[in-house]
Amino acid sequence: MKRIIRRLLGIVILAGVFAAVGYSFMPQPVGADFAVVERGRLEVTVDEDGKTRIRDRYVVSAPLAGRLLRVELNPGDAVLAGKTLLTTIEPQHPELLDPRERSQAEYRVKAAEAALEQADPRQKEALASMQFAESELGRVQELFKKNTLTKQDVEEKAMQYQMKTEEYKAAGFAKEIARFELEQAKAARELYKTESLGDESNRDWNFEIYSPISGQVLNVKQESSTVVQAGAELLIVGNPADLELEVDVLSADAVRIHPGATVWLEQWGGDRPLRGKVRVIEPSAFTKISALGVEEQRVNVIVDMDEPYDNWERLGDGFRIEARIVIWEGNDVLKVPTSALFRTGDDWTVFKVVDNHAVLTTIKIGKRSGLEAEVLEGLSAGETVITHPSDKIINGTEVSAR
Questions:
Q1: What is the b/e burial string over 385-396, where b = at least 16 CB atoms within 10 angstroms of the residue's CB?
Q2: Domain ranges of the chain
Q3: CA 355 to CA 349: how far, in whole Å?
Q4: Residue 320, SS3 per DSSP
Q5: pLDDT of 112-157, one tens digit each?
Q6: Any idea what the Cα angle at residue 17 is, between residues 13 and 23, rounded to 5°?
Q7: Domain 30-42+331-401 adopts which CATH fold?
Q8: Which CATH number fits domain 44-53+242-330: 3.10.580.10, 2.40.30.170, 2.40.50.840, 3.30.70.380?
Q9: CB 76 within 8 Å of CB 200
Q10: Could you tell me the pTM of the whole model?
Q11: Residue with the larger pLDDT of the pair 123 and 15
Q12: Most buried residue, 44, 167, 192, 351, by most Cβ within 10 Å?
């Protein structure tokens, strides 16, 4: 009996060894990453870096030659138009000036007067354009209520009205600056007139420069006391709340972007993306050398903030941001991860999972973003595909979720 048991035990052990060896040579399922084809929102975007800039910056320059007293203001200090003293210049004695300097003072006054005359009709033109855009917006809103026009038509007119409003504000700002420069030029000319000297012992010849706008000091070009010439840059002032963004994109992408397009601003330092809108695509491109040393034609896209100032008040002039400019969007789109797509000849294909096996499937795609693509033919919602398929997977390979 013991001999029979030993023989049976040996047979069992030998069968187990053969079974283990046979199992080791059997094909095993290949581990893979799965994704489900689903319907949802899809945005096609142009992703580029950009930077912020204050729309209306004012460079305060010396209106006459003389000794600049030390500038006591620092970047970030608040200034009020016509009230905050920026700096003081001790001008050269008028009797020591040559006729050329006096002539230049006269010409600066005439140039400032011409600039003011040009600013007035530009402001009126901007006002007329804004009023026309407002009436057009009202007209399309009435037609929209009657189901004659689409919501997109209303949004386009609303964007045009917003753009014309900003142009009118900019024209008004330019007119105020022109008026300020004229006043500065006239004051400087008076100091150049030798006949206005009078009693020099009782006259203060210091020339005080006040802020032309309300806002903040952005940069101090010349802080220490020194002798400056007329036209030398002293300070830069601007309003941080009047911020826009400059995003340079490839010229091939610029033709697909339209005014009013939604822009998502990321990596700006906040805890959530900010929303903006494209105001204008500049009509002239420029050449830029990429990090790989390739010449590229780039175009500046100007974006306005579309959120309250409190949400982005920490942003300043020249800050870096990452912009995603939406060029197409859909809400009920059948989509698949782009990591599942690969080329087979001229066709787009995926590995669809059917009964735990990879099935090579030809599909047709439409719009595509960096992470997802629209499926037009070949797949249905709820089906499973393999993302990042390895070279171990071919048509018919057994697979398992990794």
A1: bbbebeeebeee
A2: 30-42+331-401, 44-53+242-330, 58-238
A3: 19
A4: strand
A5: 888 888 888 888 888 888 888 888 888 888 887 877 777 777 777 8
A6: 140
A7: 2.40.420
A8: 2.40.30.170
A9: no
A10: 0.64
A11: 123
A12: 351
